Amino acid sequence: MSLRLSETLRRAWTTNPVLVVMIVFSSVCFLISATGLTFTTRLINGEHAWIKPLKFSISLTMYGLTLFWFARFLKSHEIFFRRVCVTALVGTVAELFLIIMQVARGTTSHFNTATPFDHTVFWLTAIAILPVAFGAVALFVMLLREKDLPPVLGVALRLGVILTVVGFIPGILMLLPDVAQDLITHSKQFDGHTVGFSEGGPGLPYIGWSTVAGDLRVAHFVGIHALQILPLAGYAVMKGLGRFSLIRQEMFVWNIGLTYLSWIILLTKQALSAEPVIAPSPHTIVYAILVVAFSLTSAVLILFARRPKTRLFLDS
C-alpha cells in the first residue's frame, strides 16, 4: 500500500509538483484540524475552534485534486495553467496558515475586528483567497478556448466552472461595506455571513450554519462545489443515458446546470431574507417546489421529445 502511494505521489510530482504541494499542505492542515476537533472541546463564538480550519482544509484539498484532474483537459494552455496553480498554492498556504494561527490564538480569523492585528488578519484572509477564486475564472477562460473537450463532459466542465464563479457572489456579499449590506437587506442586521442575527449564534452541529437567521455560507458552499458536482453529473449522464444522442445528453447536463443555478439563487435569497436554512418560509418552499417541478418536466421533455437538430452553446 505504501509503495503504491509513493509511486502515485512520484508520478503526480512529475506531472505537476505545485499541485502536489498544495494537496499535501491542505491534507496536513486537515489532519491537524481533525486532531484538534477530536481531542479538544474549546469553543470560539459558540462553535468548535477547529471546525473552520477543518472545513477550509477539506475544501482546498478537494480544489487541488480537482485542478489536478482538470489538467488533463487543458492541453492547449499548460504554461498558463501552471501559473494559475502557483497563485492558487500561494493563496492556499496563506489562507490556511492564518486560519490555524488565529485558532491557536483562541480567536476567529474571519470578520474579526476586535484589535488592529485581528482586523489585519481578517483582510489578509480575504486577500489570500482571491488567487484561489481567480483560478476558477481562469479555468473557465481556458475551457472556453479548448477545442478538444469531450462533447458532453465539456459542457459539464464549463457549466461547473461558471456555477463555481457564481458561488463566489455570496462570499463577496459578506465582505461588502455596511452601507451596501444594509441596502441589500433593507437594514436587517448583517454581521459577517449572518443576516438577521449576530455572527456566532446557534448553528448546526459541526457545519455551523445558523439555525436562527440567514447564513450566506450555505449558498457559497453549494456554489463553489459545483466544480466537483457538475463534472460528476456529466459522467453520470454519459453512463446512464449513453443510448441517447449526444445532443440530448448535453441538454440534460444543461438542465442539471440551470437547476443547480436556481438552487444557488434560492439559497442566497433565503439567507438575505434572514431565513435559517432549516426553517424556510412558505415563499421559499413554493420557489423550491417550482424549481424541482420545472427541472423534472424539462428532463422528461428532453428524453422523450422529438430529436433536436442543433448543437448547444458551450459545446465546442
Highlighted features:
about 325 residues, mainly alpha, 2 domains, 3-stranded antiparallel sheet, 12 helices, 5 strands, globular
What does this structure look like?
70% of the residues lie in helices and 3% in strands. The longest helix has 28 residues, at 78-105. Strands 3-4-5 form a three-stranded antiparallel sheet. A two-stranded antiparallel ribbon has the order 1-2. By secondary structure, the protein is mostly helical. It folds into two domains: 1-148; 154-316, no CATH class. A hairpin with a 2-residue loop joins strand 3 (190-191) and strand 4 (194-195).
Short description:
With 316 residues, the protein is mainly α. It folds into 2 domains: 1-148; 154-316, no CATH class.
Helix content: 55-70%
For the secondary structure, the number of strands is 5
Number of domains: 2
Largest sheet: 3 strands, antiparallel
- Unreliable runs, pLDDT <50, ≥5 residues? none
Structural class: mainly alpha
Write the layout of secondary structure elements.
Layout: H1 2-15, H2 17-39, E1 43-44, E2 47-48, H3 51-70, H4 78-105, H5 116-128, H6 130-145, H7 151-175, H8 178-184, E3 190-191, E4 194-195, E5 214-215, H9 216-224, H10 226-240, H11 246-272, H12 282-304
Antiparallel strand pairs: 1-2, 3-4, 4-5
Helix pairs in contact: 1-2, 2-3, 2-4, 3-4, 4-5, 4-6, 6-7, 7-9, 7-10, 7-11, 9-11, 10-11, 11-12
